[in-house]
Amino acid sequence: MSSTDTAGQDRQRISLLRVLGPAHVWALGVGIVLVGEFMGWNFSVGKGGAMGSLIACWVIGLLYTCVAMIDSEVTSTVAAAGGQYAQAKHIMGPLMAFNVGLYLVMAYTMLEAADALVVGDLLTAVAGEMGHDALDPRPFVVLTIAALAWLNYRGVLMTLTVNFVITAAAFISIVVLFLGVQPWNPGEMLQHRELLTDLPYGWIGVIAAFQFGIWYYLGIEGTCQAAEEVRSPARSLPYGTMSGIITLLIAATMTWYVATGLLPWEFLGQAATPLYDAARVTGVPALQVFLFIGTLFAAIASANGCINDASRSWFSMGRDRYMPLWFGAVHPRYRTPYRAILFLIPIAVSFAFTGLLDQVITFSILSGLLGYTFMPINMWMFRKKWPLGTIRRGYVHPFHPLPAIVLLLLCVTTYFATFLGYGTQLLAMMCFYIVASLWFVFHRYKYVRRGDQFTMPWSRPRGY
Q1: For labeling, which of 309, 322, 345, 449 is most exposed (least CB within 10 Å)?
Q2: What pLDDT, in 10s, does the model give residues 336-361?
C-alpha cells in the first residue's frame, strides 16, 4: 500500500458531526440550485424560444421530481456521506461507485466555477454602470471561492445556516420581483402578448432547450451529501429534498413568467444575468437593488453548497480508498473533510478563469446527467435486492417503477438535446470518464477493501 494510502488512518476514526436538520437539507439543495433561476436557464430560450423554454422547464421539472423521489427513498436508508456514490457502492459495485463519485465531484466543482463567474460578471456589470468599465472580475472569482472554502473548512453547521439565510433572501427577491411587476394587471408592465412568439425553431428547438432547462433544478440531488451529518436521516432527508423540489418548481415558473414578459426572447436567450436585467427594464430602482442582492446571494449560496457537496464526495472516495486515503481525513477540531475542501479549490478556480460560462455550465450539466442516468438502474436493483418490508425505509416513493422509467426516458432525450448543441463536449466528457474508469480498474481497484465498504445494517440481498 502506498504512503498516501496509509497516511491519516488515525484521523479517519474522527467522524463527521450529526448536527443538521430538515431546514439545513433544504438550504443545501435549494441553495445550490436557486442560482439557476437567476442565470443559465435562459439559454434554453435561445434554443427553443420563450414557449419552448416553458415546455423544457416543466418537462425537466418532471425529471427532477423523479430524481427527488428516488433519492429520498434510497438515501433515507443509505445514510452515509457521498450521496449517490454511497448508494452505488452498496447496491451496484465499485466501478459504478467510482464513476458516480466522479460525476458528483465534477458536476459540483464546475457549477461552483460557474457561480463564481456570475459573481464576478455581476459586480463588473454594476461597476460599469457606475463608470468603472475596466474592472477585472477574476479577483472577485478567487475571493468568492476562497471565502466560501474557509467557511466550509470551519464547520458544516455554520456553513448551511448561512446558506439557509441567503437562500431564503434570494428566493424572496424572486417573489418581490413577481409581485412588483403586477402579474394581476397584464399589460401594465408585463408584455406577454407582444413578446411571446410561436416556436422559432419548431419542436427540435424545444428538445434542444431541454439541456439548459436542467439549470432550473441542477443540484437538488445534493441534499443526499448531508446524509452522514443530519440528526435524523430518515426524516430530514425526504422532508428537505421534497420541500426543496416544490420550492424550485414554484421559483422556476415565476422566473419564466416575469422574464419572458419583460425581455424579448432574442435578448433573453443570451443574457448573463436575466432576472437582474428584467428588474432593470422595469425602471423601478428598488426592484433592481433587490434583484442585484438576490442574484449575488443565489450565486454565493450555490457555490457554498457546491463546495460542501464536492468535498463530501471526494472525502468519501478517499475514505474508501477509491482515491488516496489521505483525502479521507476529518479535521480534529472542526470535524470537516478539510483536505478534500482544500484540494478542490484550485480546480474550481481554473475552470472559472476560462470565462466560458456556457461551456462550464454544459460540462456541469453533462456530469449531472450521467449521474441521473444511473439512478433508475440503481432504484430497480435496490427494490429487487431489498424489497419493501425487508429493511426499514424512512420514505417510500410511490408508483414504482414509473418514476424510474420516466427518468430514464427523459435522460435519453436530454442527451440528444445536448448532442444537438454541444456534441463535441458530450463526446469529450464520455471519453474522459472512460479513461478514468480504465485508470480505476487497472491501477486503483487493488487498494479498495470491499468488505469494509458495506456499512449498512441490512439483511443479505434476496437471492444470496
Answers
A1: 449
A2: 999 999 999 999 999 888 877 778 88
